[in-house]
Structures are given as C-alpha cells and as structure tokens.
Amino acid sequence: MRHLIEADMLLGREQESARLKGMLDAARRGFGGCLLLRGREGAGKTALLDHAVQAAPDAIVVRISGVESETGIGHAALHQVLLPFLDRLMVLPDPQRSALETVFGLSGGMTPEPFLVGVAALTLLADAAASSGGVLLCIVDDAHLVDQESAQVLAFAARRLRAERIVLLIAMEESPSGAATWAGLPVHEVGGLDPAAARELLLSTSSDCVADHVVERIVAEADGNPLALLEIGSTLTPDQLAGVARLPEPLPASDDARFTRELGRLPAAARVMLLTAAAEPSGDPEVVRRAGAELGFGDDVATLAGVRDVVELDGRIRFRHPLLRSAVYHGASTDERRRVHRVLAAVTSVERDPDRRTLHLAEAAPGPDEALAAELEAAAGRARARSGHGAEVAIRLRAADLTPDVSRRARRLVAAARAAVSAGAFTQARALLVAAAPHLSDPLTRALADEIQAKVELRLGGSAARQPALLLATARTYEDGDRRRRDKLLEAMSKAFVVRHAVERTTPLEVAEEALALPRPTVSDATAGDLLLHGCATLVAVGYTKAVPLLRAALGALADPEVFAAGAPEWFMLGATAAQAVWDDGFRAGWFRRVEEQARADGAHERLRWALMAAQLERASSGRIADAGGSLESAGAGPETWEIITTPEVPAWQGRDEETLSAAARFERMAGDFGMGVLANLGQVALGVLALGRGRYRDAFEATRRLCEQDVLNLEHLALPDLIEAGVRCGERDHAAEALGRLRVKAVAAATPWALGLLARSEALLAEPARAEDLYVQAVEHLERTRMATDLARAHLVYGEWLRRNKRKNDARLRLRLAHDMFIEMGAAAFAERCRMELVAAGDREGGTAVREPGDLTPQERRIARLAAGRATNQEIAAQLFISPSTVDYHLKKVFRKLGVRSRRQLVLREL
User: Fold this and answer.
1) I need a labelling partner for 352 at 20 to 30 A (CA). Which of 130, 403, 685, 769 fits?
2) Percent of the chain scoring above 70 in pLDDT
C-alpha cells in the first residue's frame, strides 16, 4: 500500500497518526495498549501499520501477517510472534513454559489450557519489553486470516497491556467470520478518505496530467478507498487520464483478475514455483526447493524471473499481498494444484511433519478415499492433543469430505462439531450437526449429536434444561457394565444439580433411579466418582438418612490426591454439594481450595471461574465477605467477564440492598433463559439473607419458603434454619415448628458441629423459656467448632435478642456487642445494623459503630498487597494471579500510594 506521507503524517489520516503516536508515547511511560484497525480491503490499514513502525525507531518490532493457508494450523501465528523470544522461555514459571513448549511441539505433555497459553505469551512479551528498556511494538496484519488458537491468545494479551511497555496493533477486514474473538478491544474503523484527501493522493502518485472530470470520476468510483484510487489510476492510459479518450464503463476494479493477468506474464517455471509456495503454508523455502527438482523449476528459487516481484525471500517465503497468494493458487487448474500437493507430500518428512504430509495428500486426492480419511482422523487427534481445536475442525471436515460411506461421514461431521464446540465455533458446530443429521444411523452417534446440540444451543442463548435428559439418553446407549455408562450418568447427575427444578424431558429422580439400577462396582474397583454418584443418587431417590454414610464415604475418597491426577474433575461442583449436604464445612473449604489451586496450576480458566464463584459462598458464610467479593477478580479477568456468575449473596451480606435485589432478579431471569435452576436458588438465598439482616422477616419467610418448595434434590435442609428464624419472627410459628421437625431428622443424621449448632439455634427459637437458654448455649458451643463465623455470630445475635426480651439487659448487651463486633469485622452491614438497634433497645447508648470499609484498595490490589506482605516476589505473585510482573508492579505502586507506605516491609505492619 502506497500512502503519501507529509510531515510525519499519512495523507488523510492525521487523526489516526496522532492516535498511534500517543499510544507509543504512553508505552514509553509504561502504559501499553492495543488498537484494532478494521476496514475494507485497501482502506489503508497496512499503511497505518507501516507508519507506526516509522514512528517508533527506538522500538523492538515484531510484525506478522495472517495467511489463509495457515488458518487451520493451531498456534501458527503465535509461533511467529514469539519466535524472536523463544530463547527466553526459561524466564517463565514452569507451567507457562511447559504450555508454550507443548503447543509449539518443543516437548510433549498434557494439552495446556488456552488461558495458560495466553498468560505465558503475555509474560514472555512483557519480559522482552522490560529487558529491552524500550517499547515492544507488535503488529498483526490481516488478523482475519490468523488461526483461531493464536487469535484467542493474542486477544487475551491485548486486554492486559495497561501496565506493559507494549503496543499491539491489529488490522483486519470488516466483519470477518472470526471477529468475535477480538470483541471488546478498542477499535478504529478505517474508512474511506475524504474527497479532498482522495484527490490529493491520486494526483500525487500520477506522473501524467489528469483532467478534473476524470479525477472526480475516479474519486467517486473508488469511494475513498486508497488502493482502489491507486489501482484504477494505474490501469488507465495517458489519454484516458487526460480526458482525451473515453473512459471504460465501469472503471476497472481491484480484484484477483488483475493479479492473475500479471502472473500470467511470468515464465512457466516461476508460475509453478509460486504455486508451490502458495500451496505450502509453512513458507519454508527448503520444502519448496525440494519440490522444485520434481516440478521442474529447480532449487534456486531466488533467481527465477519475476519471483521477487511477487514474494519476499527473507528466511520464509512471504507473498507481498494476500490477494497474490489467492490469485496464484486459484488461478491454477485443479490438475495443476493436485500435482503440486502430491509432490509436496512426497518431500515432506513423515517423521517430522506427518500431519502436513497427510493434508497435502488430501488436497491431491481426486475423490473419496477412506484410507486417507482415516489418516486425517489420526492427524485431527494429534491436533487436539496440541490444543489446536481450530486445526482439528478443519482436518475433520476434510476427512468427512473424503469419506465414501455416508453413515461414517456423518459420524466424522459429529466429531468435527464436537471439536468446533471446543474451539468456541458454536454456529459452525450447529451447521455441522444439521449436515450430519440425515445420515446418523447408530443410536450412540445420534445421542452424542443431541448432547453436542444442547451445548451449542446453550452457548448461543439456549437452555441447559435438556442437558440431563440428553446425557441420560447417551448413557443408555452403553451396556450396563460399560464404564462410559456410569461416567455419563455422573455427568447427567452433575448437570441435574445445576438445572434443578428447571429440568426438561427428565427429572433428577429419573437420573438418580437410573444410576441406582447400575450394578454396584466392587470396593476395589469403585472410584471416587462412583461413590459420589451412588451417594447423590441415594440422596435424591431414597432419602437423606440413607445417603449420609454414602456421601461421607464419597468425601473420604475425594480427599485422595489421585482424584486430581488429571486435573480438577469436570463434576467438581457435585463434590462441593455433597459436602454441604452433610454439613461438612471443613471438607467444603478444603475442596474449593484444592480445585482453585489445581485450576490455577493447569491454567483451566473456565473451571477456575466456576470454582471461584462457588467459593464466594463458602468465604461469605465463613465471614470472609471482603475476600468473597474479590475472589473472581483474582482470576485475572475484568469485572465485565464475571458479572453473570457473581453471586448476589455477597452484596446481601454486605447490606447493599439495591445491588442484591438487582442481582437476584438477574439470576431469576437467567435461570429461566438458560435453564439453570441453581441460579434462581442462589437469588432466593440472597434475598433471604438480606431480609433477615434488615429485620424484614415476612420477606425472608417468603424467600426461604419458595426455596424449599423448589427443592427437587432433597437439599431443603440447607434453607430450613433461615425459614425457622423468619417464621418465628413473622408469626408463622406453625410453619416454623413443622420445618424444625424436618431439620431435626437431617441434622441428627449428619451429626456434625455445623448441623447440630444450627439445630440447637433453631430449637431455641421455638423452645419454652426453661429450655431456650441451654439450647442457645449449645448452639454457640457447636458453632464455635466450625468455620461458619456468620452462623456463630447469628447465634450470639438471637441469644442476645432472647435475653433482652426476657429483661436481662446486661447479659443481652454482652451477647449483642459480641455479635455486633463479629459482623463489623466481617463487613456484614445489615446484620450489624440489626445488632445496633437491639443494643440501643437494651440500653446501650452508643449502639455500636458502622462497618469499617476495607480501605480504598480494590480486591485485586488487596490480594497483591497481602502476597507482597507475605514476602512473595513480583514474579511469584504474577504466576499465582495469572498476570505479568509489570502488572504486579503497577498495582503495587497504587497500593503504596493509597496506604502511604514506601516499602514491602511497611506492608507487613499494615492490617490487610
């Protein structure tokens, strides 16, 4: 792209030039950023990138361009970006280094999570920038042609540059199919030049006299597109430009045809060489040279006439314009392309690059070929193992194309759809399932297709309500003794505990009964998952008392470190639910901690998100309310990423009425929209907590009663203590007494300090005065042996309220003051206010103090400050929080400023 540059500005692009300069200046001060340049082909995006390079002579520049033939090769573009820095891999934490080495084929190992690859790439780039002492300018041109895996990693890094000396510039065409990957990045639409700038550009690049009416005609036809302006002008004769000869109608446009005409004038050997380069996505000149002997253009490609006008030869063969590669490849005949691919397959090493060889053979195939399709399936499996899901989809599609049997072809399309789901291409997955549907002949593949369809519809705004039924149907396609049947039923049970009362086409009871009908594995053969499935199925289908010992056995098995040998299990939330079902607060806290640590170590971002969401409930109920509110941010994602899974119970404990009501309403809507009944339950729990704290007992009673009525999993006992307290306070003593009976049966069966403490507290609320005090004391004693600080504080509160009502104001003030101070320490504002009002009624003139704010540190800043105070280095903090060391330093500077300290040593002395 040729653009006129005057006074360090691109003609007609003054605003864009100034913005790029500002970004580079900010990066020199340590504040990096990203900009996505989007526009039509020929709008001048590449010229803006060229200008950015010229404006940064002091920068390290890494520049790549997306190539259409490499869109199916996972992490190909990322490899180009990081190639200059791979000798610095040793600076990365072990999990990050291993992730990059695995996806680049430098070592073997388990498939790394995309999130961990993203963190590793960001850390490596940040280290390169920091070690240079200057700015790193990273440019990705034609980003719409970048492979999906690389695009995801680069987009991840682009969102996290604010504390790095990095500028990332991305250029892409308008509305490409992969645009969703780059969503959320700052975008500048590169539109057409205004008429004045268009005229000036046209005239400045023409050596001939151009008549005014011709200028206006070209400007109008080009619609401000700089490439069209220059190319139209270059195709007209001097007489046409001068207005002497008639202009053609329409004016010649910019397309592959012009490139094809130019290529047609090259010698035959050069054309074959260029076709070979176009067909070989690696750009490896050695591969092209080896093919040259067979194809007749020799091994000295650089000396072929006209080649250097089309490609650059600087270590890799790169076409000077993406349209040139397209014109070369599609301008050749089918037979010519097949011949070139056959030769490339022959010169590609079977040992070093078997997948590329197979792909060349596939492109050379004249028709269906089952043996070759099977080879492609094996290649697809290897692509998946490297976390190249986009590459896997492309390979599986080619395998399906080459499959002669329609039934087998349908199975391969379903496999491609499953890979597309893994790649995040849900619309593509849906289209593949539609194509496969007419030829799905075996029950297992049909069930698998239905299961994938449900996942696709959920991600495209559909409902999870049918997932348990679909998983149940898949399970039924396996024999009773088949391990896969049990695994699918465990997955169905796990989904049923999420979908709950919103389930469609089955019930949790049906899933449970199906699981209980399976032959029981022997004690030696039973896995932790088997025990968990049996315990949860018994809970749903048989009853709580029978389920308790089974769930305890499952929790014992889940404590084995081997459960996490292959990473945190997909059904980990079921383990947490089992612990909560038997009121085992110690296991629940330890389980969440293990899942979180494992997910961080694996870089399993999605699993980490859900683990942290669930951990909010444990942290809030154990009194660490501020930590609960900040737990999601510790995953390294922005708040907008987490909005839909942030539980409303945290603001409920904090007494933030409007936020709680809004979040609960949002969860209720989402429960209906997405078929996740657990979200509605979480909303009702939050409303109950808030109402109890505010003393709105009728509201609390209705919220908790609704929660119990929705229960389809035999988990209502978790809401019964709140229902009993609210019922007693709002005059629904009969309902409270009936609920107490149900609670007593389950609490006695569980017999943990948490269960017995809640039972004693609830019994005291309904007891005669002669028994009440002993029960309150028992409740406190039991709950003091748990982690459940909120339940303990509430026991002190209701005990103090009882003492005040029985005219024992001095004793009441002691209990109420203790409860008040505990709630203040937790940040539980609503309950603290309830204590304060009771203190005033008990004759305490001060009535307590307001909840202390935890400083003006953000949750992320507070977490970093605590780690720094614990002697962790910036590198160690970065590895734990999935951010770069530069970002840690950025946050620590803000912490020091806010807290008025100058060193980490002073942080140790602060209460954080």
Assistant:
1) 403
2) 88
